[in-house]
Amino acid sequence: MSTTRTPQAPDILSVIDFEAPKLDWGGGLSRYIRQRRQELGLTHERAAQLAGLELSQWYALESGWVPDMPEGMNMLLGIAGTLEISWADLSFLAFMADLVAPKQ
Question: Who contacts 24 (Cβ-Cβ below 8 Å, separation ≥6)?
Answer without folding.
Answer: 16, 17
